[in-house]
Every structure is written in C-alpha cells, then in structure tokens.
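Translate sequence into structure tokens.
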Amino acid sequence: MANEIKNSLLPQTLAEFERWEPNDGYKYEWNDGELIKFEGMKNKHLYLISILNELFDKTDAKKLRGQLLCEQDVMLTGIQLRRPDLAYFSREQIINSKTEEQIPEFVIEVISSTDQINEVKRKIIEYFKNGIRVAWLIYPDYQMVEIYTSLKHITVCTDADICSARPVLDDFEIAAADLWN
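Result follows.
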C-alpha cells in the first residue's frame, strides 16, 4: 500500500515532471515517460567543480559571457529531459533560451560509484544524437576522464594527459592529474 501511494504521487507526464519537486534527496531526469533516479552532486565533488569553473573563467567563452552551468535542465527531445552535471551554453544560447530549448555543445558528467554504466552510456548516445559535440565523463574514484567527441572517438585521460573540450572550447583544457590535486 505504501508503494502504491508513493507511485501515485510520482509525475505521470512531462508537464507534471517539470512542476514536480521531489523531497527524497535524489535528482531525477525524464526519458520518454520513465523517471530516472540518481544522486545529485556530492560535497566531495565540490572541489572538482570549483577547479572546472576556475578553468572556464579563464576561457574566451567566459569573456564572451557564456556560462558553464551545474545541473541545468536540457530538453534533448520532446520526451527526454536530462540534467548534465555541467553544461556549457554560449551567450547566444542563453538569450535564445527565452523562446526555445537549447542544447549545449559541451557537457560534463561526474561519475560516482552509484551510477549505472548502462544508463551513463545511454545518456551519451542521446547527447550525441541531439547535437552535443563534446562530453566528458569524469571518474574521480579512478582519477580518469573519458572524452567523447563522437560515439566512436573516445580519449581516455589519466595522469599528465591533457583533457580538452575542443572543438567547442579551444582553450578549456587541463591535465587529468590537476583535477584531483
């Protein structure tokens, strides 16, 4: 009975989902009627996010008033709403967001031990099908970054390897080891 009550309170449509405010400590995404539950950014990732934001603040994109935003709603299609951990939006995209949905060209996902790899890979496929050009999967537990520039071109960075957001942000790059130090 308790599960029935809980399930009856869950959003059943995208419109309900967009108005819904969960209070169970989890974050949710919407994928064609399916609620996808995940843990939000953890305090232990605050330092990592800080490093990435400091790096972004030095880019030409920042000077042109672009933004690297945390957990921004991204409507990939009319039935898929995702919340990448970080997403880059140009100033033009931010202005155009008043009238139409915008797809970032660069996203970052911080992968925790509770993330399901099949769900992460499904999200990467969706991102590239909908116009994202660069995606970073950061694995803090392994001190490793996977950089996707397409579904077939993946670079794995560790230690002194340079992680780059090219071709979206030419001057957003960092040695993988500098993300953890």
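Note: The CA atoms of residues 59 and 171 lie 6 Å apart.
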